[in-house]
Amino acid sequence: MIQHGPLLERLLAGDFVCAISDPDGYRHLSDGETRDAINHYLRPLNRRLASNDDKSVYFLAYQELTPEAREQISQQFALTVQSLLPVLEWLQLVQETLGHDSALSAGDTLKLQEFVLRAEDNQSLRQRLQTLANDRFFNSQSEALDQQVKLIFRRLKDHGYLQQPHGDRHYYVVTGKIDYLLDMIRFIRDEEHLPVEDDPTQEVLL
Question: Which fold has domain 77-205?
């Protein structure tokens, strides 16, 4: 397991591994023998590798739902739910502002300045962006549109939904964690009846 040490550390820290966030790690996890070896190592820790249906992103899940595991899952779920609706609203704004026909997925590229320039010309989008930026998930204190958008993108990068290949260039690549989030939203909508489809645009996204 020494050769997979850094990858295991990332997974155990709660990271999501996809072709964008960690190309080498994702390539290793796409190999069945490597997955079996990692799962064998993780078994005493009550962990196992998991992925979304498309296998575009890998992460860790619990092997058995012990009381301690249920407590951890409840805490993680509460944190994730806090980000569900703000990130979903951001996905809608990106789709409307940039004229995309479908929701974002892993590998899509976003240019921050293009997003700002297009939003500036639409009062409705500006107002929705300001409301989103003021949400506690993003917690912007700025009134300037460009600063609000920069903060939104930075927070999404910090939470693993976006990757910034070059720190001095304001373009971002969507990671597989977005695919995971959309799968979770669909599950909650179908199984837990979370009201995420009141807006027609949300229904199209999902």
Answer: Arc Repressor Mutant, subunit A (1.10.10)
